[in-house]
Amino acid sequence: MKKILFASSAIVAVAFAGQAQASEPIKLSVGGYMEQWIGFVDEDAPDTEGRVNAFQSDTEVYFSGSTTLDNGIEIGARIELEGETSGDQIDEQFLFVNGGFGRIEMGKNDSAADSMGITAPRVGPVGPNDGGIEDWYENAGIIDTVPSSGDQNRVTYFTPSLGGFQAGVSFADDSGKNGSDGYNSIDGSGDNVVSAALTYEADFDGFSLGLSAEGENVNEGSWYGAGVNVGFGNFTVGGSYGHTEDDYGLNLEDDGSNGEDIDAYDIGISYAMDAASVSATYAYQEEGDEEIQAASVGLNYTLGAGVSWQSSVFWFDEESDADNEGYGVITGLALNF
Description:
Blueprint lengths: L1 H19 L8 E15 L11 E14 L5 E9 L7 E10 L2 E8 L2 H5 L35 E7 L6 E8 L20 E11 L3 E12 L2 E12 L2 E10 L17 E12 L2 E12 L2 E15 L2 E13 L4 E13 L1
Antiparallel strand pairs: 1-2, 1-16, 2-3, 3-4, 4-5, 5-6, 6-7, 7-8, 8-9, 9-10, 10-11, 11-12, 12-13, 13-14, 14-15, 15-16
C-alpha cells in the first residue's frame, strides 16, 4: 500500500512540477484583524471570585499567497498568527489547491462542517451561539449548534458550486492532536474525525436563501445539525439546530466518562441600512438536567474602509448544579487590514 501511495504521489508531483516552472513564484501578502473591547458585566454565580478584565482584545495576522500554474490550477498557503494566546501561537496553517474540480485544503484548519454551517444572523462583538459570552465571565456555559472539533491537522475537499449546491468533507486521523496539546506522530491516542456538510445558496426575485446540513463523527458518536437564513429587502432572518450524542468522542465529562445528549438551537433577525446593521438573537441549549439560554442585541457601524464600531447588550441564564445568571454591555472598534 505504501509503495502504491508513494508512486501515486510521485506522478502527481512530476505533473505539477512541469507546470510550476512557468508560473509566478509565491509571494506572501499580509492581512488580519484587531479587535479591542471595553465592557461592563455582572453575574450571580455563587462561587465567583473577583471579576473578568473589563478590557478584551482579539488580534490575528494572516500571511497568504498563491500561484497559478499554466494548467489553471491555483496552489497557495495561509498562515494565521495569534496576537495573544496561552496555547498555539499559530492558529491555523494550511495549503490549498483550487481548480475546476473544487478546492482541497491540507493542514491545521476547521472542518467542513464547521466552516459551512449556517447559524442565526448576528452582528456585534458578543452573541449567544458560541459568540464569546464565556470570555466575559468566570462561570458561563457555552451554547453551540455547530460544536465541531476545532483546528486539526486534516485534509478537506470542497466541491464546486453546482446550481447553488456545494458539499464538503474532512478527515483528521487523531482527535487527540489538537490545540495547546500539540502534535505528536507517535502517540495516536485519539480517534478519527470525519466531518461533512452540504449547503445551498441562491438569490431569487426579492429574496435570498441559504441552507446547510452538517455533521461530524468521533469515536462511536456524532453531532449533526442544520441551519437556514432568508433575506428579503434589508432584513435577514434565520436559525439553526444542533444535536450532540452522548457518546460523541469529544463530549466528555471531567472524569472522562460520556456526557449527556445535547440539543441546541438559535433564532435571530438582522437589519442593514447603509453603513449600519443591527440584530437580535436568542439561543437555547439543553444537556440532561442543565439548561442554558442567552440573548443579545448588536450594532455594527462602518466608520470607514476596514474600520467598524461594534456594540452588544446581552444576557444569559444557566440552570444547573451551579445556577448562574448575568448580563453585559460591550463596545469597541474592529479593524480589518
